[in-house]
Specification:
binds heme C; 7-stranded antiparallel β-sheet; 4-stranded antiparallel β-sheet; about 25% strand; alpha+beta; single chain; disordered N terminus
C-alpha cells in the first residue's frame, strides 16, 4: 500500500495524509494584486443574474485542433493530458490476465480485477466468495508513478481499493488505505479533482462527501486549465478569421513571474489550505487569494520530492538569483520526460563559460558535461510520502523522484562521470 505522511524537521510529528500530495510548503508572502489581464474571458454573471455557469465557459480541447493542431497533437502524449479520463478499453494499465489480476490481503481475502459485459471491476473475495464489487468509471494517473481508479456511487466519487504501481508494474494497495483492510468507499474530494482534471461541477455535499455532476467535467490537465476557459476565444476567432491576434485567452508567458509560477504551484506546490472553493482559481489569479500558505519557514519544512517542485525550486540559488520559472526548463506542450540533454541545454542558457556561472567541473569532465547536468544537480531521490507495499512485502518500496533543489550533490559525481564515459566510448 502507498502511505503518505508529512515529516517536519525538528519535531517527530508525523501526519498521515489521505491525498497523494504531502509535504508542506512554506510560504513566501505574495503581495501581488489580482491579475488585471484584460484578455481574460469576461465573467458574464452579474449580482442579479443566475449563478455563473462555469462549465459552459469551456470549449474542450478538441475545438483547439482546428487552429492549433501542432500543439494539440504533441500535448496528447503528455502526462497532463493523460492524467484523468473516463474508462475505456485502452486506458487501464494494470493487467486483467489470470495470474496477474489479483492482490491478496491475507490468506482469506483478496481483490480480483475482472472484465464483465458492463465494464471493468475490482471484486473483493472472502474465502472464495464475492462480497463487494466496485466498478472502474474514471482512470487517474498517467502511470509513470501509478494509476488509481474511481467509482461513481450515486453522485459521489470514491477511490477503489487497488492501485497500479508503475515502476514495478504491479497492483498495490491504494494510497493511504490500511494494509489489512479492503476499503471501497473513500470519498474523492474536489481538491483531488482540482489537481487531476481541468474542471468538475460540484453539485453539493451529502453524508460528509462532496457530490458532482457526472457530465459537467473537463477531464485531464488540459489546454483550458492553463489558458483559462476558452469558449469565448473559440467563438471570437472562428467568427473573425481575419483577426490574427488573440482575444479572450490567457498566455502565461505574458503574465508576471509570480502569476506564471502560481499556475504551476496550484498543483505542484504541496499541501495548500484552501480558503475558497476548488476550481475558483484560474490562470492569472494570485494563488494567495485562494489558499492560506503555511507560515513555517522553508528551513523548517522538510519538503518531499513528490508533489512540491515549487517548494524545492524556490530555495535553490538559480531561483533566488535569476528570473527562473518552471517554463524556463519545461515545455509543457510536449512529452520531454527522459530527454536529459534537452534539459541540460536549458541550464546552459544561463550557465556556460561565455555567460558566466559555469560548472566548476567543466575542465575535469570536458565537453561531454553538456549531455547531463541533471543527474549531478537534480538527482532522483527517495520520496518519503509515496511508498508502496507490494503484495507479500514486509518493507515498503519508495518511489524515486527528481529533486528540484538544484545544487551540487558531490556524492553523485562518480556514478555520473562513469555513465558519461560509457556513453561516449
Ligand atoms: C478559429 C481558430 C481558433 C480556435 C478554434 C482556437 N484558437 Fe487560439 N488562437 C487563434 C488565433 C488566430 C490566435 C492568435 C495567433 C496565434 O497566437 O496563434 C490564437 C492564440 C491563442 C493563444 C495565444 C494567446 C496569446 O496571447 O499569445 C492561446 C493560448 C490559444 N490561442 C489557446 C487556444 C485554446 C486553448 C483553444 C481551444 C480551446 C483555442 N486557442 C482555439 C485561433 C484559434
Ligand atoms: C491542474 C493541476 C496542474 C497544473 C495547473 C499543472 N500541473 Fe503539472 N502535473 C499535474 C499532475 C496531476 C501531474 C501528474 C500527471 C500524471 O502523471 O498522471 C503533472 C505532471 C507534470 C510534469 C511531469 C511530466 C512527465 O512526463 O513526467 C511536469 C514536468 C509538469 N507537470 C510541469 C508543470 C508546469 C511547468 C506547470 C505550469 C505551467 C504545471 N505542470 C501545471 C498537475 C498540474
Ligand atoms: C500545463 C499548462 C499548459 C497546458 C496544459 C497547455 N498549455 Fe499552452 N502554454 C502554456 C504556457 C506556460 C505557455 C507559454 C510558453 C512560454 O513561456 O513561452 C503556453 C503557450 C501557448 C500558446 C502560445 C504560442 C506558443 O506556442 O507559445 C498557444 C497557442 C497554446 N499555448 C495553446 C495550447 C493548447 C491548444 C493546449 C492544449 C492542447 C495547451 N496550450 C495546453 C501552458 C500550457
Ligand atoms: C495538490 C495537487 C494534488 C492533489 C490534491 C492530488 N494529486 Fe495526485 N498528483 C499530483 C501531482 C503534481 C502528481 C505528479 C507529480 C509528483 O508526484 O510530484 C500526482 C501524481 C498522482 C498519481 C501518479 C501519476 C503518475 O505519474 O503515474 C496518481 C495515481 C495520483 N496522483 C492520484 C491522485 C488521487 C486519486 C488524488 C486524490 C485522492 C490525488 N492524486 C490528489 C497532484 C495532486
Ligand atoms: C534562468 C537562468 C538559470 C537557469 C535556466 C539555471 N540556472 Fe543555475 N543558477 C542561476 C544563477 C543566477 C545562479 C547563482 C549564481 C551565483 O550565485 O553566482 C545559479 C546557481 C546554480 C548552482 C549553484 C547552486 C549552489 O547552491 O551553489 C548550480 C549547481 C546550478 N545553478 C545548476 C543549474 C542546473 C543544473 C540547471 C538546469 C537544470 C540550472 N542551474 C538552470 C541561473 C540559472
Ligand atoms: C532548472 C530546470 C527546471 C526547472 C526550473 C523546473 N524543472 Fe521540473 N524538471 C527538470 C528536470 C531536468 C526534470 C527531470 C526530467 C527527467 O527526468 O526526464 C524535471 C522533472 C519534473 C517533474 C517530474 C518529476 C519526476 O520525478 O519524474 C515534474 C512534475 C516537474 N519537473 C515539475 C516542475 C515544476 C512544477 C516546476 C516549477 C515549480 C519545475 N518543474 C521547474 C528541470 C526543471
Ligand atoms: C559529474 C557531476 C557534475 C556534472 C555532470 C555537472 N556538474 Fe555542476 N557541479 C558539480 C559539483 C560537484 C560542483 C561543486 C564543485 C565545487 O564546489 O568544487 C558543481 C558546481 C556547479 C555550479 C556552481 C559553480 C560555482 O561557481 O559555484 C554550477 C552553476 C554548475 N555546477 C552547473 C552545472 C551545469 C550547467 C552542468 C551541465 C552543463 C553541470 N553543472 C554538470 C558536479 C557536476
Amino acid at each position: 500500500m502507498i502511505r503518505y505522511f508529512r515529516v517536519l524537521a525538528g519535531s517527530n510529528l508525523k501526519i498521515r495524509r489521505s491525498t497523494v500530495v504531502a509535504a508542506t510548503i512554506a510560504g513566501s508572502i505574495f503581495l501581488l494584486a489580482k491579475c488585471t489581464n484584460n484578455n481574460k474571458p469576461a465573467n458574464t454573471a452579474t449580482a442579479e443574474s443566475a449563478p455563473r455557469d462555469r462549465f459552459s465557459e469551456y470549449a474542450g480541447s478538441a475545438t483547439c485542433e482546428n487552429c492549433h493542431r501542432d500543439i494539440v497533437e504533441k500535448h496528447a502524449k503528455t502526462a497532463h493530458h493523460l492524467t484523468s479520463e473516463p474508462v475505456n478499453d485502452n486506458n487501464i494499465l494494470g493487467s486483467f490476465k489470470k495470474g496477474r489480476n489479483e492482490f491478496d490481503f491475507d490468506k482469506r481475502t483478496k481483490v480480483v480485477m475482472e472484465k464483465g459485459d458492463s465494464g471493468y471491476f475490482q471484486v473483493k473475495y472472502v474465502d472464495g466468495k464475492a462480497t463487494r464489487k466496485g466498478r472502474i468509471d474514471i482512470v487517474v494517473g498517467s502511470g509513470k508513478i501509478g494509476q488509481s481508479y474511481l467509482e461513481w456511487i450515486g453522485d459521489h466519487l470514491a477511490q477503489l481499493p487497488i492501485t497500479w504501481y508503475g515502476p514495478e508494474k504491479q497492483w498495490s494497495n491504494s494510497p493511504g488505505y490500511p494494509p489489512d483492510k479492503v476499503v471501497f468507499n473513500r470519498p474523492i474530494t474536489s481538491r483531488c479533482l482540482e489537481c487531476h482534471t481541468s474542471f468538475v461541477q460540484k453539485t453539493g455535499e451529502s453524508q460528509n462527501a462532496e457530490t458532482y455532476s457526472h457530465t459537467r467535467i473537463v477531464y485531464a490537465v488540459d489546454c483550458e486549465k492553463c489558458h483559462g476557459p476558452a469558449a469565448q476565444h473559440v467563438q471570437f476567432q472562428s467568427q473573425n478569421p481575419s483577426v490574427k491576434e488573440a482575444k479572450f485567452i490567457v498566455n502565461p508567458a505574458k503574465l508576471s513571474r509570480q502569476q506564471n509560477l502560481d499556475l504551476c504551484r496550484l498543483c505542484h506546490g504541496g499541501r495548500l489550505n484552501k480558503t475558497k472553493p476548488s476550481f475558483e482559481f484560474s490562470v492569472g489569479d494570485s494563488l494567495a487569494s485562494f489558499f492560506a500558505f503555511n507560515p513555517l519557514s522553508i528551513e523548517m519544512a522538510n519538503i518531499d520530492v513528490h508533489g512540491n517542485q515549487y517548494g524545492l525550486l524556490s530555495v535553490s540559488k538559480c531561483f533566488e538569483k535569476s528570473e527562473l520559472k518552471c517554463t524556463s526548463c519545461h515545455n509543457v506542450h510536449e512529452k520531454e520526460d527522459g530527454k536529459l540533454q534537452v534539459f541540460s541545454q536549458r541550464c546552459m542558457n544561463c550557465h556556460n563559460p561565455e555567460k558566466g556561472h559555469p560548472c566548476k567541473m567543466t575542465a575535469e569532465i570536458g565537453p561531454s558535461i553538456s549531455q547531463n547536468c541533471i543527474d549531478c544537480h537534480m538527482p532522483k531521490q527517495v520520496s518519503h510520502t509515496v511508498s508502496v507495499y507490494l503484495e507479500g512485502a514486509t518493507t515498503p518500496t519508495a518511489a524515486l523522484m527528481r529533486t528540484h533543489y538544484i545544487k551540487p550533490y558531490p556524492e553523485e559525481n562518480e556514478k555520473v562521470i562513469a555513465w558519461l564515459k560509457r556513453k561516449n566510448k
